[in-house]
Amino acid sequence: MDAVTNDAPAASGGAPSLEVAGLAYAYPDGHQALFGVDLRVERGERVALLGPNGAGKTTLVLHLNGILEAGAGSVRVAGLPVGREHMAEIRRRVGIVFQDPDDQLFMPTVREDVAFGPAAAGLKGAELEARVVEALEQVGMAEFAARPPHHLSFGQRRRVAVATVLAMRPEILVLDEPSSNLDPASRRELADILRALDVTVLMVTHDLPYALELCPRALVLSDGVIAADGPTGELLSDAGLMATHRLELPYGFAVPR
Predict the structure, then answer these.
(1) What is the value of pTM for the model shown?
(2) Under DSSP, is residue 76 helix (H, G, I), strand (E, B) or coil?
C-alpha cells in the first residue's frame, strides 16, 4: 500500500460517496446560506448541482472537504465524518476542480503541478512518477508533462487541473463550472474525459445541456435548500420548476424525450 493511503481510516464498504444531513450554515455577517440540506450520492454516480446565483452552491461545496464547518447537521464522505479528526483523508478523498485552472496550477511544469499533492502526501520516486503519468493519461495530457502550464491553452490547463486532483485518487471529483470559457472542441474533449472516469462526480454548473449530457441525476439548490432531486431530463423539462428557480435552457434547445 502506498504512502498516500497507509494511515487512512477505513470507510464503510457500503457507505455512499457523499451523505449530507440537515446541513445549515450562516456566515459571520449573519447571512444564512444553507437552511438544512439533505442529499445522498452513491458511489460512481454523476450528479449535477444546479441553481441560480446565490442559491448556496459554493457554500455547500466548501463543506465537502472541511473548508467551511457546518453550523448544524453533518457531512460524511465514504462514511467518514467531515471534521478535524479525519481532515487530511477527507481532503484526499474530495477533489475540487475550481472554475479557473490558474487557481490550481502554480509550479514550473505540468509534471510538477500534478505531482505536488501526492508528493506532499508521501509518495516519492517511481511510485510518484507512475501516479503522475496515470493522471495525465486520464486527461490526455501525458505528452505535455514537461511544458510550463502557462504555455498551454485554457482548455488544456483545465484538463491539467483535473489531473492534479485525479493524482490523489479521490472518492469524489467536484467540478465547478467545468465547461465555462471552453471552445466547442475543448468542451467535447472534457466531456469525453469525464464520462470515462471511474469516480463519483458532483458537477456544479449553469450549463444545463452539459449537465444533461453528463449527469443522469440533478439536484436543484435554491434559497439554501434542495428544491428538487431527480433525473436530469425530467427536471429540465419541468417548465414550472425551471421558472421558479431561475434556470433557463439556451434558446432553441429542446430536452430529448
Answers:
(1) 0.90
(2) strand
Phi, psi angle pair for 27, to nearest 5°: -75, 160
Predicted confidence (pLDDT) at residue 185 exceeds the cutoff of 50: yes
Count of C-beta atoms within a 10 Å radius of residue 107: 14
The DSSP line for 77-90 is ETTEE-SGGGHHHH
pLDDT top residue among 9 and 58: 58
Phi, psi of 32 (to 5 degrees): -90, 115
Tell me the three state secondary structure of residue 235.
Answer: helix
Question: Are 101 and 153 within 8 A, CB to CB?
Answer: no
User: What does the pLDDT look like over 66-75, one tens digit per residue?
Assistant: 899 888 999 9
What does the alpha-carbon distance between residue 11 and residue 103 come to, in Å, rounded to a whole number? 30
In the predicted model, is pLDDT for residue 163 greater than 60? Answer: yes
User: In the numeric block, which cell numbers belong to residue 137?
Assistant: 493519461
CA atoms of 35 and 31, how far apart (whole Å):
11
Asked if 64 and 82 touch (Cβ cutoff 8 Å), the reply is yes
User: Would you report the helix, strand and coil content of the chain in percent, each value rounded to 5?
Assistant: 35, 25, 40
Distance from C-alpha of 16 to C-alpha of 77, rounded to nearest angstrom: 7
Cβ count within 10 A of residue 79: 16
Q: Where are the alpha helices (DSSP H) in the chain?
A: 57-64, 87-93, 110-120, 125-138, 154-166, 184-196, 208-214, 232-236, 239-244
Domain ranges within the chain, ordered by starting residue: 18-244
| Phi, psi of 104, rounded to the nearest 5 degrees | -115, -15
Class of domain 18-244: alpha beta
Residue type, 43: R
Which backbone phi and psi does 10 adopt, to 5 degrees? -75, 140
How high does pLDDT run on average in the chain?
91
